Amino acid sequence: MDSLDIRLLRALFPGGVFALSGVDPRPSMQKLARVVGASRVTVRRRLTRWKEGGFWKGLVTFPNPDALASSFLMQSFTLRHGHDLGRIERSLVDIFEPVFLFQTEQVFNTVLLAEPREASERRQRAFRATGVGRANGPPFDIAFPQSTVRLGPRDWRILRALRKSPDPDWVAVASEVGVTVRGLERRIGRLRAGNALFFFPELDFRRSHGSVTWVGVLFGTGTDTKRLEKELARRYPDLLEIEPIFPIELLLPPSLRSGVAGSFSFFLPVPSASTGDQLRRDIGAVPGVAEVLVGFPTHNSTGSRMLDHRIQAVLEVGG
Question: Which CATH class is domain 72-143?
Answer without folding.
Answer: alpha beta
